């Protein structure tokens, strides 16, 4: 019995026989979708006297909000830091392929690059909704070049820059345009970083601290000026020290402005962080943990050599190093692998693991009113998963955009 | 009157649900010939609703050609408030079954003209051909729906102020804050329920025992409004052992035998 069409003509789909992640719990509820949004069935029943047009039996699957990856450098042979002729088709390929990992929105990430790369690549990235063509693009994540030499990690030293001359103007000149930029990672100990952080924050760009030798008070000052994220916690920063916890100390700092939360990215691929360290971070500040893949071009491909911007990277199993060194450079982990590994390593609940890849990144970017949850009126970007957290199907705007073969529904 | 005594809450709920289920099936509802059901809220009928949902999910019972009329609703509470009777019915019953939303009638406690809303409700019942089976509960003070002690036994659907006992009892659902508890409700009248062709009252638990005693062993009295059903030609009281604690042994033996 369809609705009386008083609000909308669009068909109403009811996903039954499932457990949905809502209010931080897996609840035995049906999921209702109409016109690309999660629908309130009680309102439909009483206000519109409506009911479902289509009912789909999910055979006991878990339904979770789609994953959001805010740090991904490429994959499947595509490198977002390389200004190639077919850059656009490269980004399309990655956005389409990561649907099978459960990612429904992402921030293509560029590592430290010469200005020419930013000037050529950034205009080719557009913020767009996801769909059958691939995951939605929320905006670019620019990791560098305003980072510390001592903590450059896999970033090329010759491209590092400072903004001590012209502060924000230097940054703007380097990147060319900030129109589709969502996150900028920088080292807060750099001169005039406060001005830059304030200016970026004013423009709605999320400032992340990373590749830095900042001490805790420098980090706290950066947060006071507007920084809200930490790029891959533990990696490329000073190690935790009990008399100066450095950036890691932000997890339990008492100098965070009221009403704000500091989020931190974690690559839970089993390589970048020892499980014990992952647990320490999670237990210290569970609500701030954001799972990221930091995946590079070699993700999804056979082991071997690939590029990461200006560098060459060697992949051996799950380990990815700058060729000829032991310097970690990104990962080949997929988001769903990270979610599973995170859940195993911390022993946390399924709900917590799923929220670290959906709700928390949405909260970081200030978009949780429409992404990262299954709340009524949110965008209907969601996943069907089995109990072991393997993705069985991916939906964007209520439409199935990927399905594991041999799933009968 | 029939008094059906089951051993415990679960069995009483199941008996009541089976009775409703059988009534509907025997009626053979079809397009143009709906079975009309009056429905209660509260703790007591939860087990019965669960069973009805089970029968529906097993494929044994459909509500496609059933019309329902709820007994009451708070005044001034937003419809989507978790304690509204709309929320109760949606979460505990409607969302699990195949009833047509156009056939699920609940009084609107936020209507601009409350008396007109009540009159319209009576009209809808009339247009549906009257109620085949009205299921109700009993309050500790012997009220049916919100027909608090002192309500006329020939009353119709109307606005009622809630008794202090009721407000206090409800406070636990509103964070213990008395100021948040609704003080008025729209309710079907005793007369409205008496018009039904058949009435089934569910009473379980020792705290309802005194009310049951007053309802069936004493006279018809507007202080114990459920007592009105002594004058209804087809009433069943379904209860558990605990609810019979205040009855005479003779009464219990008679109905158990």
TrEMBL record, chain A:
<dbReference type="GO" id="GO:0106279">
    <property type="term" value="P:negative regulation of UDP-N-acetylglucosamine biosynthetic process"/>
</dbReference>
<feature type="binding site">
    <location>
        <position position="154"/>
    </location>
    <ligand>
        <name>substrate</name>
    </ligand>
</feature>
<dbReference type="InterPro" id="IPR011059">
    <property type="entry name" value="Metal-dep_hydrolase_composite"/>
</dbReference>
<feature type="binding site">
    <location>
        <position position="211"/>
    </location>
    <ligand>
        <name>Zn(2+)</name>
    </ligand>
</feature>
<feature type="domain" description="Amidohydrolase-related">
    <location>
        <begin position="62"/>
        <end position="401"/>
    </location>
</feature>
<feature type="binding site">
    <location>
        <begin position="328"/>
        <end position="330"/>
    </location>
    <ligand>
        <name>substrate</name>
    </ligand>
</feature>
<feature type="binding site">
    <location>
        <position position="243"/>
    </location>
    <ligand>
        <name>substrate</name>
    </ligand>
</feature>
<feature type="binding site">
    <location>
        <begin position="235"/>
        <end position="236"/>
    </location>
    <ligand>
        <name>substrate</name>
    </ligand>
</feature>
<dbReference type="InterPro" id="IPR032466">
    <property type="entry name" value="Metal_Hydrolase"/>
</dbReference>
<keyword id="KW-0479">Metal-binding</keyword>
<dbReference type="Pfam" id="PF01979">
    <property type="entry name" value="Amidohydro_1"/>
</dbReference>
<dbReference type="GO" id="GO:0046872">
    <property type="term" value="F:metal ion binding"/>
</dbReference>
<dbReference type="GO" id="GO:0006046">
    <property type="term" value="P:N-acetylglucosamine catabolic process"/>
</dbReference>
<keyword id="KW-0378">Hydrolase</keyword>
<protein>
    <recommendedName>
        <fullName>N-acetylglucosamine-6-phosphate deacetylase</fullName>
        <ecNumber>3.5.1.25</ecNumber>
    </recommendedName>
</protein>
<dbReference type="GO" id="GO:0008448">
    <property type="term" value="F:N-acetylglucosamine-6-phosphate deacetylase activity"/>
</dbReference>
<feature type="active site" description="Proton donor/acceptor">
    <location>
        <position position="294"/>
    </location>
</feature>
<feature type="binding site">
    <location>
        <position position="232"/>
    </location>
    <ligand>
        <name>Zn(2+)</name>
    </ligand>
</feature>
<feature type="binding site">
    <location>
        <position position="272"/>
    </location>
    <ligand>
        <name>substrate</name>
    </ligand>
</feature>
<comment type="pathway">
    <text>Amino-sugar metabolism; N-acetylneuraminate degradation.</text>
</comment>
<dbReference type="InterPro" id="IPR006680">
    <property type="entry name" value="Amidohydro-rel"/>
</dbReference>
<dbReference type="GO" id="GO:0019262">
    <property type="term" value="P:N-acetylneuraminate catabolic process"/>
</dbReference>
From TrEMBL, chain B:
<keyword id="KW-0963">Cytoplasm</keyword>
<dbReference type="GO" id="GO:0042802">
    <property type="term" value="F:identical protein binding"/>
</dbReference>
<dbReference type="GO" id="GO:0004342">
    <property type="term" value="F:glucosamine-6-phosphate deaminase activity"/>
</dbReference>
<dbReference type="GO" id="GO:0005737">
    <property type="term" value="C:cytoplasm"/>
</dbReference>
<dbReference type="InterPro" id="IPR037171">
    <property type="entry name" value="NagB/RpiA_transferase-like"/>
</dbReference>
<dbReference type="GO" id="GO:0019262">
    <property type="term" value="P:N-acetylneuraminate catabolic process"/>
</dbReference>
<dbReference type="InterPro" id="IPR018321">
    <property type="entry name" value="Glucosamine6P_isomerase_CS"/>
</dbReference>
<feature type="domain" description="Glucosamine/galactosamine-6-phosphate isomerase">
    <location>
        <begin position="9"/>
        <end position="232"/>
    </location>
</feature>
<comment type="similarity">
    <text>Belongs to the glucosamine/galactosamine-6-phosphate isomerase family.</text>
</comment>
<dbReference type="GO" id="GO:0006043">
    <property type="term" value="P:glucosamine catabolic process"/>
</dbReference>
<keyword id="KW-0378">Hydrolase</keyword>
<dbReference type="GO" id="GO:0005975">
    <property type="term" value="P:carbohydrate metabolic process"/>
</dbReference>
<keyword id="KW-0175">Coiled coil</keyword>
<dbReference type="GO" id="GO:0016853">
    <property type="term" value="F:isomerase activity"/>
</dbReference>
<keyword id="KW-0413">Isomerase</keyword>
<protein>
    <recommendedName>
        <fullName>Glucosamine-6-phosphate isomerase</fullName>
        <ecNumber>3.5.99.6</ecNumber>
    </recommendedName>
</protein>
<keyword id="KW-0119">Carbohydrate metabolism</keyword>
<comment type="subunit">
    <text>Homohexamer.</text>
</comment>
<dbReference type="InterPro" id="IPR006148">
    <property type="entry name" value="Glc/Gal-6P_isomerase"/>
</dbReference>
<dbReference type="GO" id="GO:0006046">
    <property type="term" value="P:N-acetylglucosamine catabolic process"/>
</dbReference>
<dbReference type="Pfam" id="PF01182">
    <property type="entry name" value="Glucosamine_iso"/>
</dbReference>
<dbReference type="InterPro" id="IPR004547">
    <property type="entry name" value="Glucosamine6P_isomerase"/>
</dbReference>
